[in-house]
Design brief:
Layout (H helix, E strand, L loop, with lengths): L1 E8 L6 H15 L5 E9 L5 H6 L7 E7 L5 H11 L4 E4 L11 H8 L5 E5 L7 H18 L12 E4 L16 H7 L4 E5 L2
Parallel strand pairs: 1-2, 1-4, 2-3, 5-7
Antiparallel strand pairs: 4-6, 5-6
């Protein structure tokens, strides 16, 4: 199976090199010769040095594309840009803010290759401020589960492995990435969830 990493950035110049190195290291661990990988980085109109840092990554040894939005358009818009430029049918989506641990890529891919249409991370042991981040997330996830067929605990987790052909006009609207698991579940796709760091 072949995979496209899609990572949006917005004012994350301090994280670019670290995240890229972690992704490259983990690609080397899971690349058994039967998988191909590409990376698409999208700078969503940053006003710091994110784009300059991204341009330094052309010597990755992995097919790497850097795309820049001239203005900040939203995380969903940045993801759509990456999806439209991806050449592979399986997408690995991560945030550029180091909230997700690329070391979890291995187990996400293993679970995905068992036959899921989507694997989403579950940040079971979050380190965020409880009242500002964790509690609102718990409440939002409860509401989403109440009105959808999804059993996912953490719809807000950005770390996903998903088949590109599941993302269509039924799922891709509004701030689509936050409710993608619920929309796929409602449309009969197989969604799995695993704990991530």
């Amino acid at each position: 199976m072949n995979y496209t990493f899609i990572i949006p950035f917005y004012n994350e110049d301090q994280n670019v090199s670290t995240l890229n190195n972690e992704i490259i290291n983990n690609i080397k661990k899971v690349n058994d010769g039967k998988r191909n990988f590409e990376i698409i980085y999208i700078d969503d109109g940053s006003n710091d040095n994110t784009f300059e840092e991204l341009k330094k990554l052309d010597s990755n040894g992995i097919d790497t594309t850097v795309i820049r939005h001239r203005i900040n358009m939203s995380q969903s818009a940045a993801l759509n840009t990456g999806i439209s430029h991806s050449k592979y049918e399986n997408l690995i989506i991560l945030d550029g803010d180091l909230q997700n641990d690329p070391a979890d890529t291995n187990k996400m891919i293993d679970e995905f290759e068992k036959g899921a249409d989507m694997v989403i991370g579950w940040r079971k042991n979050r380190k965020d401020n409880f009242f500002l981040r964790s509690f609102p997330s718990i409440l939002a996830n409860f509401v989403v589960r109440l009105f959808s067929k999804s059993k996912v605990h953490d719809h807000g987790c950005a770390f996903k492995v998903v088949k590109k052909n599941t993302i269509d006009e039924l799922t891709n609207w509004g701030d689509f990435h936050r409710l993608l698991a619920a929309r796929l579940a409602n449309n009969g796709y197989k969604v799995k969830e695993i704990e991530v760091n």
